[in-house]
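Record type: monomer structure entry
Structure origin: computed from sequence
Chain ID: A
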Amino acid sequence: MIPADPKSENLSNEEQEELELPQSERIRRAHEDRTRERRKTTKHRERMVGRAAASSAVADGYTPGRIVRTEAQYLIAELEDGTELRVKAGKRTLAADQNATLVTVGDRVLIDPSTTGVPLIAEVLERKTKLLRRASGRSDDYAQVIVANIDLLVIVVSILEPPIRSGIIDRYIVAGLEGGIKIAIVINKIDLAVKPEIKAELDYFLTLYRKVGYPIFAVTANDSRSLTPLHEFLAGTTSVFAGHSGVGKSSLVNVLLGTDDERTGELSKKFRRGAHTTSRSVLLKLGDISDTYVVDTPGVREFANHAIESTQLKFLFVEFGPYAEMCAITNCSHIHEPACAVIAATETGAIAIERYASYVKLFEEALEQEKATRERF
């Protein structure tokens, strides 16, 4: 009889189960634990510094506020009593992230009311969440912060005019998850899905993203009743509506708010594509539900993700998880390795080909960014 391993006898049930896991899963969990601890330590340090700075700043007479929109070269801050104040940022404005947009909609700020003329933002407080994109026209690692301190990213696409594209949905999903934001998807203009093939396409994408696990809503701004489930879903959150130009983001926001303002426009009849009808991000209160806010953002032609690590990207495609541990190679990238279970699952249809194509595209872009960064240094 082989004696029991004394080390094994001293292990807890959880530790014993950990040993029985596949090597790839143990490595992945260990990596996640290290990353989580590193981020926790960093966030704790930043939080303590931020609290100390905030307490000191308020004691010095600074006024706390939240940026709700821009106005030419100025920013509009909502103060704690609900009043709005025009403010500005400058060289003396402090911020934790020096390689990103200094101040954006959603930022919590401390304002120096003693400034001559327009009050100066003394400090931008730590961002709990943020939606980033790669800054257009820049070759460095500077990040454009679209919005900060939000709970939910609502990715808006249209079934037609412009046609639905899974690539833009997946880019936004990755950006949202990277920024610590929950995800929801809205397919707008379903009233245009009159042909059988368009209806079939609508059903296909609804099924695809529901299977992945993201809330998805089929709506039309022409019928406010279709927005009722979305309206209820937004309750108690601060959300941002983002997507391609012309998908109808601002029209949806207006219906949800029960308003009709100048931020929206008609689709270009000549080119059948959206004009940039919203030129700036703005935070709006959903008045009939307490503690509920919506940020409408300008539409984009293209969306480039910012500084995604190629080795971490696979963890942002959640449906890969069940198959990844079956890959023949530890730390499989799911791109070129033999006996890759993720590739096999894509070939059988268990993983949607559109999602895998998005992953490959983003992986290649991440490698290019990493190569460019190495060459700069």
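Annotation 1: Residues 22-127 form a domain with the OB fold (Dihydrolipoamide Acetyltransferase, E2P) fold (CATH 2.40.50.140).
Annotation 2: DSSP finds ten helices and 14 strands in the chain.
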